[in-house]
């Protein structure tokens, strides 16, 4: 079976483009370019979203050089000789040879393609690659970390799934770029993985603060579900036992507040309401504040 490989050049903090959509800082030098060429040479088919395809189609007419091509000329030869599948609902016909347009990204179709392909496949673009990662389709990742921090932008990897990786190789280049090659350990598809129509959508960049908020909200939801299960179990046992007292319920609430003390992120009004915390209290999810709530004076 062929492998599906995701490659990305990103900043040290994990973004393939900044908040303005700029990625000029990721342009590879001759050494990195030739290394990338050797990774791309065995690829038989590239999978692209519309936006990345419109960038990459430059290579369709780029000069290919002679018997001793430069790194860019060599890459042009490699790209032109590979097949491409572009997922888009807005493109009606391809602008390059050996290219097919598909209106939707169907994980089952990719699985079939992997099973029948004679050469490995590459997937490009953070948004499309996120769909493939959620679907459990990606077999390997090549990440090129550039010596720059951009703060926010388009993330190279999705932040709503957890995937275990095995490091296969690493390399440092003279310009400060570090290459990391990972194998993706087998995992079940993420529940969000479904066939998706690839229309024109604006993906709003997610800031670090947004990621922290999502993480803390997810942690809160997990704690609330655990408390709900425990409460239901207690209710079933209440037939033969005395009902829960106000003191035990207060203790449960305090325990839940203490469980939130895993970050320094302020607790939102929604989180206060779900946890039953009065909105007039200045609550911050850290050990000191949680301790004061758990043991009020």
Q: How would you characterize the overall build of this protein?
A:
With about 300 residues, the protein is an alpha/beta fold. Helices cover about 35% and strands about 20% of the residues. It contains nine helices and twelve strands. The chain has an eight-stranded mixed β-sheet with strand order 5-4-3-7-1-8-11-10. The protein is globular. The termini are far apart. The C terminus is likely disordered.
Order of helices and strands: EEHEHHEEEHEHEEEEEHHHH
Cα separation of the termini: 65 Å
CATH architecture field of the largest domain = 3-Layer(aba) Sandwich
Strand content: 15-25%
| Estimated helix fraction | 25-40%
Number of strand elements: 12
Shape: globular
Number of helices: 9
Q: Overall mean pLDDT score?
A: 76
According to CATH, what is the topology of the largest domain?
A: Dihydrofolate Reductase, subunit A
Low-pLDDT runs of 5+ residues are 199-220, 238-247, 256-267, 277-297
CATH superfamily of the largest domain: Dihydrofolate Reductase, subunit A
Strand arrangement, largest sheet? 5-4-3-7-1-8-11-10
The SS-based structural class is alpha/beta
* Main sheet summary: 8 strands, mixed
């Amino acid at each position: 079976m062929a492998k599906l490989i995701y490659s990305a050049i990103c900043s040290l903090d994990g973004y393939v483009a900044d908040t303005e959509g700029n990625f000029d800082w990721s342009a590879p030098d001759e050494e990195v370019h030739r290394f990338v060429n050797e990774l791309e040479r065995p690829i038989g088919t590239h999978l692209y979203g519309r936006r990345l395809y419109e960038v990459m189609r430059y290579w369709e007419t780029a000069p290919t050089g002679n018997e001793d091509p430069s790194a860019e000329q060599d890459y042009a030869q490699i790209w032109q000789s590979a097949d491409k599948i572009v997922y888009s609902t807005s493109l009606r016909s391809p602008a390059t040879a050996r290219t097919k347009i598909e209106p939707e990204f169907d994980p089952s179709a990719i699985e079939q393609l992997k099973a029948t392909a004679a050469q490995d496949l590459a997937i490009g673009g953070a948004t499309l690659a996120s769909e493939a990662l959620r679907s459990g389709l990606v077999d390997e990742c090549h990440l090129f970390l550039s010596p720059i921090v951009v703060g926010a932008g388009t993330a190279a990897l999705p932040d709503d799934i957890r995937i275990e990786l095995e490091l296969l190789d690493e390399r440092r280049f003279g310009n400060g770029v570090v290459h990391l090659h990972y194998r993706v350990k087998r995992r079940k598809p993420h529940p969000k993985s479904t066939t998706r129509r690839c229309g024109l959508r604006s993906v709003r960049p997610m800031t670090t603060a947004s990621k922290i908020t999502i993480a803390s909200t997810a942690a809160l939801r997990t704690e609330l579900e655990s408390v709900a299960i425990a409460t239901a179990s207690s209710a079933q046992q209440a037939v033969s036992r005395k009902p829960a007292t106000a003191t035990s319920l207060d203790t449960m609430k305090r325990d839940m507040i203490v469980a939130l003390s895993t970050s320094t992120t302020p607790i939102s009004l929604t989180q206060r309401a779900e946890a039953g915390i009065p909105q007039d209290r200045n609550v911050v999810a850290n050990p000191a504040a949680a301790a004061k709530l758990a043991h009020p004076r």
